[in-house]
Specification:
Number of helices: 7
Helix content: 25-40%
Order of helices and strands: EEEHEEHEHHHEHEHEE
């Protein structure tokens, strides 16, 4: 379960304080798929960064599985992300000097997991990349790189998966494959999935859509 309580984010700009996200409260139940939508500059990626503990709120608190992550230090946040949160970025953020298999291995090696190499190979198989583990990111298509990124995000078996514009850098056909993969992970494994997206078709597949505008929640729409 994810809960935001009066969470806001204000930064300092040349013209003075700039509020990117106004006080916002909502909760996401375990196993839900939630799409966060809105125009550029509406605060979508900022909100996702706060959920991931990558940014600190100016006010309020973010609670994940009963833990107020706002009160954690960097070490505590890193531990929580390693155990509970997988993140998929629009631009993949793979390490170019590592192969696909090695990229998936990184979080498991950091966590000291046993049998990491065979699990990494199994994850690559699950995302349709059997036989591609020895390739470097530069040798993979955009869709293949994003699938490696998804395998990496799943490496430590996190209950929560956050994805920031996961199809934004892909053509529509490849984007649909990535969407199907993410939704399959949610539905077959019961992971909570939170997606930031401009794609209305993708948003329509979510259990709930949270629409932002000018740093405020404009609407919440549940499917069905």
């Amino acid at each position: 379960m994810i809960e935001l309580v009066d969470v806001s984010r204000t930064v300092t700009s040349g013209a003075g304080p700039l509020t990117i996200l106004h006080p916002t409260s909502f909760r996401i139940e375990s196993g839900q798929t939630v799409a966060i939508t809105g125009p550029s500059g509406s605060g979508k990626s900022t909100l996702l960064g706060l959920l991931a503990g990558l940014d600190s709120p100016s006010t309020g608190r973010v609670v994940i599985d009963g833990v107020n992550i706002t009160a954690l230090g960097e070490e505590g946040l890193a531990k929580l992300r390693g155990e509970k949160i997988g993140i998929v970025f629009q631009f993949f953020h793979l390490i170019p000097s590592l192969t696909a298999l090695e990229n998936v291995l990184v979080p498991m090696e950091l966590a000291g997991l046993a049998d990491a190499r065979s699990r990494a190979a199994a994850l690559l198989h699950d995302v349709g990349l059997t036989g591609r583990g020895h390739h470097y990111p530069s040798q993979l298509s955009g869709g293949e790189q994003q699938r490696v990124a998804i395998a990496r995000a799943l490496a430590n078996d996190p209950p929560i998966l956050l994805a920031d514009e996961p199809t934004g850098n892909l053509d529509s056909g490849t984007g649909h494959q990535v969407v199907d993969l993410l939704l399959s992970v949610n539905r077959t494994q019961g992971r909570t999935l939170v997606l930031v997206t401009h794609d209305r078709e993708l948003a329509a597949m979510a259990d709930e859509v949270i629409a932002l505008r000018d740093g405020r929640v404009e609407s919440r729409t549940a499917r069905g």
